[in-house]
Design a protein that fits this description.
CATH topology of the largest domain: 60s Ribosomal Protein L30, Chain: A
CATH architecture of the largest domain: 2-Layer Sandwich
Number of domains: 2
Shape: globular
Structural class: alpha+beta
Number of strands: 9
Order of helices and strands: HHEHEEEHHEEEEEH
Length: 183
C-alpha cells in the first residue's frame, strides 16, 4: 500500500507491525490522540495502561507508541469487537476513552468494495475530530502485576500461575487440562 510519505513514528509502527493497513492507521491516530490528550509518552513500566476493545491491527500502534504490552501487564484486551481504546495514566489519575468514528471516510471503488488505499490516505490526512472521539472518563486501572508462585499441573506437568490453577479434588490442574478432565 503506497499512500505517500509517512511520518517517521508511523514508519516505525509499520516496521513493528509488518505492513501498512487501515487498521494500523486507526490505532496510530487513536494512540497519538490519547497521548496528546493526556500529555504523555511511552510507558516505562505500568504507569500507563491501555484497555483495548478489539484484537485487530490497531492494537499494535498502542504497543509501539505507548509501550503498553501484555508482558508488562499494561495492555488489557476486552473482546468487544469495537475500535475503542481507553488509556489510563496512573501517575496523574486520568483516563481518556478514544472511539474510532472515521467509518464515513471510507470510499468505494468501481467494484463496490472499500478502496483501502483511499481509506488509508483519508485516515492519515483527516482532522482528528473526523477520525476519533475523545471522552475523559474516570480512571479504573487494573491492579498492578504481581509475581506469584507457580504450581505444577498434575496432568501435563507444566507450571501454571497459582491464581490460574484449577483444583479438582486434591489435584492441581492448568485450565486446559481441567477442561479435558471435565469432558
Amino acid at each position: 500500500m503506497d499512500i505517500g510519505p509517512l511520518p517517521p513514528d508511523l514508519q516505525e509502527v509499520v516496521r513493528f507491525h509488518g505492513h501498512l493497513c487501515p487498521g494500523l492507521l486507526i490505532g496510530y491516530r487513536a494512540a497519538k490522540a490519547a497521548a496528546q490528550y493526556l500529555g504523555l509518552g511511552p510507558s516505562r513500566d505500568e504507569e500507563l495502561v491501555a484497555v483495548v476493545e478489539n484484537n485487530s491491527c490497531s492494537v499494535d500502534a498502542f504497543q509501539y507508541l505507548l509501550s503498553t504490552t501484555f508482558g508488562k501487564g499494561n495492555l488489557i484486551w476486552h473482546d468487544h469487537g469495537k475500535q475503542v481504546f481507553t488509556v489510563i495514566d496512573r501517575d496523574h489519575g486520568r483516563a481518556v476513552r478514544v472511539s474510532f468514528i472515521g467509518d464515513r471516510l471510507k470510499s468505494k471503488g468501481p467494484d463496490g468494495k472499500v478502496d483501502r488505499e483511499a481509506f488509508a490516505r483519508a485516515l492519515l490526512g483527516a482532522p482528528q475530530e473526523q477520525v476519533v472521539a475523545l471522552l475523559e472518563v474516570p480512571p479504573e486501572p487494573p491492579a498492578e502485576a504481581v509475581i506469584e508462585p507457580s504450581l505444577f499441573c498434575a496432568r501435563c506437568g507444566e507450571p501454571v500461575q497459582a491464581s490460574r490453577a484449577v483444583k479438582i479434588g486434591e489435584r492441581v490442574l492448568c485450565k486446559p487440562c481441567a477442561v479435558q478432565e471435565a469432558s
